[in-house]
């Protein structure tokens, strides 16, 4: 994971620019570089993953272009073959290929050719314009803003890098590029052109094949790789697939839980034993949770309740990994629920409603689960890779008959489970285990501790008067008011970065609840066991 800053303006001196870039340094602690190209200032904080030599350092230059890219281009070898006669590569980095692709095909076609997770900014010296783009899911973060005096455009990996430079700051929309004048949609991952109604066997075979390919792509790195293993279905599948793809190689897996009633630790240990991984467990306490809260909110750049809850354990886990290992790359299990369903989507009234909700969740991933994974991992100088967000996999699953993905089987995510059943990927009890939300599964006491802390800090009257402070997405509980107050300390007036609280669909019967945790749903059942 890396961080960059690019400003299409001479408005700021180098010291001001470097101070802003420094806010990204955790994303890329290995090396920092700043360059000026005409009126454009570029800064890059590198975490060396591909081509560990100095040749892999950015910004890249060539063909009258200057490029910074935080990305992994999974099909870069094929793309390099395509342009090998047009460009003299200076590195074996995957990202350098964007320059000759841009020159040969232009911005629109180039973005559509990438099988990748990326955020990039490129200055075209011939056209005298800055262009930029972001991957369709929004796995890699990017914000843009307009400079305080001249109103010229600037881009940063995180919003905090732009806070001292820009008054107006916005998330760069996933699946879009900026062509120097306007933002253009080049791919909406939730929208498929044709729905498929395969047999059950065909559907599960396709799910398995595409996910295996998604994991396989993400194993290529010049730096050491580790795996987050919660003991839940999704992270366990990622680990099991990687284990099968690399027979004889012992994976390094990591889990975290509260010191009181950690649900997932025992399941993570069961999976680790089954796969024969080098497994490490970390324990966190109430003091750890509360002590990390402000740092986590600053890191996340959000006020959303469930994102913050789920991030605390993940942030502390990644912090421990960074402090105690030499790992640089982490595979994780995010982005499955948005396609296969949450506990609350059991209440979807019909297939059309299920598909519509899934599309909404996929489009909003960059604000919630993807944001959490990126910030928690990258803030600890690690790179996160998300196989369930593989573009081919997402397109396949989103094109499946939504009725097949609904819970007609008294078992959520049944298609995904059955795709790997009977093939020695995981023990049956893990494969069929009921889902528990990560913020609950690390131990119910985590959420309880946060609520108790907020209860002690705020009164019911504070919540009743919250609309006087925050008209936009007014906090509605003491906990949400706590998070919003901390957010506003760091990012005053920037709440609109997030569209809404992540909550179940309140229009559905059984889902009109006042807390995002699946624990409040009547169908939670065995999930917390």
TrEMBL record:
Catalytic residue positions: 2 (for gatase activity)
Q: Which Pfam family, just one, is annotated for this protein?
A: GATase_7
Keyword Chaperone appears in the UniProt entry = no
Pathway it works in = Amino-acid biosynthesis; L-asparagine biosynthesis; L-asparagine from L-aspartate (L-Gln route): step 1/1
- The residues covered by the Glutamine amidotransferase type-2 domain are 2-183
UniProt-listed Enzyme Commission number(s):
6.3.5.4
Biological-process GO terms, alphabetical: asparagine biosynthetic process
Does Amino-acid biosynthesis appear among the keywords?
A: yes
- Site described as Important for beta-aspartyl-AMP intermediate formation, located at 334
- Regions crossing the membrane: none
Q: What is this protein called?
A: asparagine synthase (glutamine-hydrolyzing)
